């Protein structure tokens, strides 16, 4: 208890004294939400020591469950936790099943048994049917459900079905739902320089609201890349000549009625990125894009082309033509955040002489206020850049974590 932050102690006290059936923690990253929930979940399981009961851990993937939950559990318990053939671990003489819950039919994994409790990590990444089924499975007397999440758009079911019902009580007066909100500043044990660095590097607008203040259960609005500044981020082709590039790579967004796009990027020896050239066109067949890619390969070498996976036949054609075509990681918000972070830190520059459509898109790529995602217009070149940067930098992000 001595090492808990004041916010974590508040959550801890609520769990013990008020005993809500469903307890939620939403807000900023690195605020301490998941850790206190792991402690509470273990304490809850320990109440039923050696009773052979079933419990549930839910996450977006098995990898995220391992990274976000099981690794910390191992440190707390001082022992290795190995999944058996049923994707379960043994904790305090009980069985804890680990389910990935992002797909529409993921809830079926939770059918057929009674659980005494559940810990659901990254709640907004889970399918609503999965969450509802897990809650319904927790019907053992005294069962508790813990859900931690980062904020999402205001229409997300985690907000409308649970957080908005904070304080809901059952007919007998017992607390049914309790929700807590975390900001980055609630984690008083974070290094001050780290916090300052995070604030300085977090993109303006939606990502600051979410990652620092944990506020964004409200709609995003306005231009997506708010930190882009033509005076800071455009450089000339002549300026590029003095940059020491260590590698090149490309992003590909297939299109026909809307613009198709191939963008070439360079990475310098300081970890900076440059949009070196853009190719964007409407109503062109795959033969055209093969020739564009071959010309890029001739000038820059056998570089990686991170491709939109929406047209697998085009990716296959590129590979047949000996173009190194790789499937891009197309995560929208995470990819946008990575690009926006580079603009914020001035580590992404654009060669103004060699782009045309980018200059139009960068100011017209806006948030859809209802969905919390970008409007699918003026995004073709920007999608190519996102595919390339987010996929290319993935190994480094894993190493950093």
From TrEMBL:
Coiled coil: none annotated. Keywords: Viral release from host cell. Gene3D superfamilies: 3.30.420.280, P-loop containing nucleotide triphosphate hydrolases. The keyword NADP does not apply. Residues 251-389 form the Terminase large subunit gp17-like C-terminal domain. InterPro entries: P-loop_NTPase, Phage_terminase_lsu, Terminase_6C. It holds the Pfam family Terminase_6N. The keyword Oxidoreductase does not apply. This is Phage terminase, large subunit. It comes from Bacillus thermotolerans.
């Amino acid at each position: 208890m001595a090492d808990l932050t004041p916010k974590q102690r508040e959550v801890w006290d609520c769990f013990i004294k008020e005993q809500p059936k469903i307890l939620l923690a939403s807000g900023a990253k690195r605020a301490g939400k998941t850790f206190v929930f792991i402690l509470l979940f273990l304490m809850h399981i320990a109440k039923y020591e050696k009773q052979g009961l079933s419990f549930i851990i839910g996450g977006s993937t098995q990898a995220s469950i391992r990274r976000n939950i099981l690794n910390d559990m191992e440190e707390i318990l001082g022992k290795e936790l190995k999944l058996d053939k049923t994707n379960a671990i043994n904790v305090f003489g009980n069985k804890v099943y680990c389910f990935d819950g992002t797909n529409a039919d993921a809830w079926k994994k939770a059918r057929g048994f009674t659980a005494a409790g559940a810990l659901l990590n990254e709640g907004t990444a889970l399918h609503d049917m999965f969450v509802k089924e897990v809650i319904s499975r927790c019907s053992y007397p005294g069962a508790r459900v813990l859900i931690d999440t980062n904020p999402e758009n205001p229409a997300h079911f985690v907000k409308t079905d649970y957080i908005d019902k904070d304080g809901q009580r059952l007919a007998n007066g017992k607390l049914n739902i309790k929700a807590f909100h975390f900001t980055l500043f609630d984690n008083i044990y974070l290094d001050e320089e780290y916090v300052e660095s995070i604030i300085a590097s977090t993109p303006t607008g939606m990502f600051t609201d979410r990652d620092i203040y944990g506020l964004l259960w409200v709609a995003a609005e306005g231009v997506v890349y708010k930190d882009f500044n033509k005076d800071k981020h455009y450089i000339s082709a002549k300026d590029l000549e003095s940059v020491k590039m260590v590698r090149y790579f490309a992003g590909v967004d297939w299109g026909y009625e809307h613009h198709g796009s191939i963008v070439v990027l360079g990475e310098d020896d300081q970890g900076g990125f440059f949009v070196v050239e853009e190719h964007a066109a409407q109503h062109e067949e795959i033969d055209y894009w093969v020739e564009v890619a071959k010309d890029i390969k001739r000038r820059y070498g056998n570089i990686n082309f991170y491709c939109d996976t929406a047209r697998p036949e085009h990716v296959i054609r590129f590979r047949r033509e000996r173009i190194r075509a790789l499937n891009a990681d197309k995560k929208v918000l995470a990819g946008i955040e990575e690009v926006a972070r580079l603009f914020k830190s001035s580590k992404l520059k654009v060669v103004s002489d060699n782009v045309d459509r980018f200059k139009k898109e960068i100011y017209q790529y806006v948030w859809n206020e209802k969905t919390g995602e970008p409007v699918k217009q003026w995004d073709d070149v920007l999608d190519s850049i996102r595919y390339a940067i987010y996929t290319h930098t993935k190994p480094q992000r894993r190493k950093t974590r």
